[in-house]
Amino acid sequence: MGCSGAGKSTFARKLADQRGLPFVSIDQIYWQPGWREPDRDSFIAAMTREAEKPAWVIDGNYTSRSAAEVRRARADTIVWFDLPRWVCMLGVLRRSLLGYGVVRPEMAPGCPEKFDLVFYRYVWTYRALQRPKLLAYFEGLRADQTLVTFTARAQADAYLAQAA
């Protein structure tokens, strides 16, 4: 979990491969071709189906949807990328420049990378507007669940190296 551009998807794919678990991208479930938002009930049903599977690595946030409760209830570990705004902004700008017009592997078909000022604003304001929602979400974790926080990408790399 964390801001766009922080490196969540790259980390989640590597962790899933390393552990032999299915990788689930919430963006791939959520977005419809042409960057259209899904029907709320269909999205919740799809997320619930994924979260009810025996094991997974799920990449993404979407804490405002009730499917997030199912995911949180089933998770043993939450990994949070709490990186500085400038790191995330550079990440999304680099992704837009280098991948323009290409659909990333963790994205839904028909949703190519683009220049999107609304999205950049979301990333720019993430710490002020979205981070508090994640903190509230984390308050619902049980004592038997682990919250791993990365404040730098190097910490994520070290975590993967240690787990290998």
In a nutshell, what does this entry contain?
The protein has a two-stranded parallel sheet. The protein has a two-stranded parallel sheet with strand order 3-4. 51% of the residues lie in helices and 10% in strands.
Structure description:
- With 164 residues, the chain is mainly alpha-helical.
- It has one domain (8-163): Rossmann fold, CATH 3.40.50.
- The chain is built from nine helices and four strands.
- The chain has helices spanning 8-19, 26-30, 40-51, 67-74, 85-99, 117-124, 126-129, 131-139, 153-163, and strands at 23-25, 57-59, 77-81, 146-150.
- It has a two-stranded parallel sheet. The chain has a two-stranded parallel sheet with strand order 3-4.
- The chain is globular, with a radius of gyration of 15 Å.
- The two termini are 21 Å apart.
- The mean pLDDT is 93.
Number of domains: 1
Q: What is the alpha-carbon Rg in Å?
A: 15 Å
Outline the biggest β-sheet. 2 strands, parallel
What's the rounded overall pLDDT mean? 93
Question: In sequence order, what are the helices and strands, one letter per element?
Answer: HEHHEHEHHHHEH
What structural class is derived from the secondary structure elements?
Answer: mainly alpha
Number of helices: 9
Report strand %: 5-15%
Q: How many DSSP E strands?
A: 4
Regions with pLDDT < 50 over 5+ consecutive residues? none
Helix content: 40-55%
The CATH fourth-level homologous superfamily: P-loop containing nucleotide triphosphate hydrolases
Shape: globular
CATH topology: Rossmann fold
**Strand line-up across the major sheet:** 1-2
- Rounded to the nearest angstrom, the distance between the terminal CA atoms is 21 Å
CATH class membership: Alpha Beta
By CATH, the architecture is named 3-Layer(aba) Sandwich
